[in-house]
């Protein structure tokens, strides 16, 4: 007997017009979440959840992905059994011009100063 077909897994994402600046800033204030965003920027491509280098457990990292997704910063989708992550760069730039690039530039500057 064949296995019944199941519906494709989907992930809910907010419309950025419904996301407040406060919500985005609260998502980006956490250093682990900034690290996730920074890794996506550096990679220049979508990344699966298991490929991030983070100083937290996988369950905690899942929480951080959820906060970023709910704030509209990332989009998640399934590719086979992997959950992929991508930045909503164009959408964020349209809604909050310059915000994401400014936060990433400041974060990089801070990291360089800490490494010196």
Protein traits:
116 residues, alpha+beta, 3-stranded antiparallel beta sheet, 5 helices, 3 strands
Description:
Helix content is 50%, strand content 12%. It is globular and about 60 Å long. The mean pLDDT is 92. A hairpin with a 2-residue loop joins strand 2 (74-79) and strand 3. It has helices spanning 21-28, 31-43, 58-70, 89-95, 99-115; strands spanning 47-48, 74-79, 82-87. By secondary structure, it is α+β, with helices and mostly antiparallel strands. The termini are far apart. It has five helices and three strands.
Shape: globular
* Estimated structural class: alpha+beta
Distance between the termini: 63 Å
Q: N-to-C SSE series?
A: HHEHEEHH
Provide mean pLDDT, rounded.
92
Count the DSSP helices.
Answer: 5
Estimated helix fraction = 40-55%
Major beta sheet, specifics?
3 strands, antiparallel
Rg over CA atoms: 16 Å
Beta percentage is 5-15%
Contiguous low-pLDDT stretches (5 residues minimum) are: none
Order of strands across the widest beta sheet? 1-3-2
The overall strand count is 3
